[in-house]
Amino acid sequence: MSPEFRRRAAWAAAGVFVLALVFGGWGLWRVIAPASGDLKGQLASSEASVQRLREQNDALAQRVATLSRSDQISRDANRDVQRTLAERDEEIAGLRADVAFYERLVGATAQRRGLSVHGIRFQPQGDTAWHFTTTLTQNLNRGSVSSGGLQLQIEGTRAGKREVLAWSMLRQDPSAAGLPYSFKYFQQVEGDVFLPEGFEPVRVQVQLRPRNGAAVEQSFTWADSTRDSPLNGADADAPPKAGG
Description:
By secondary structure, this protein is α+β, with helices and mostly antiparallel strands. The chain contains 3 helices and 8 strands. This is Transmembrane protein.
């Protein structure tokens, strides 16, 4: 084999090798290039999906907030309705008590009574101060005005000994005058009294001194006078707040 032939054969082999590399590179590019394109497409699709999920999450969060606010509004409205119904029930009960009181006082079958104390109630105002409300009634002389003064006297114990507090002591004023009253059928008289420290009240005596006629005195236990009720006393029906 001549040297020239061997040279040509070597060049031919080199050419075939180069062609093989070229075709191999072209084939590799054909394999890799589409994969790279698919990866970019998948990445773009993933980003779009994430964005959609974020939008859906924001929408759900907004809906939850709206529903929560709506539920709170409904709860508040329901509480307002319940409170209003309770107030109406209380008003109805008060009106029924008023009607019962009027019926017992001025109704056709009402028992005729002269000046009397319907009841008395004490409410604490501090360590020693008490506010009292007492209701005076009369239906014996219909249309006539009953007027005069009201005083209290409280009996109790202090240091194990019986003690009676007069009106001047209760008012902390030696010259304290009685509280005035003037009415045809009933009137509520209010005032404040002061109990000394260590004094344990047992009984309250309401003293009425009318301008005309004999004095009236009625007693009530301290327990009944401080019990939580519309107005404590001999009658269960509470009178209206206004007098007449």
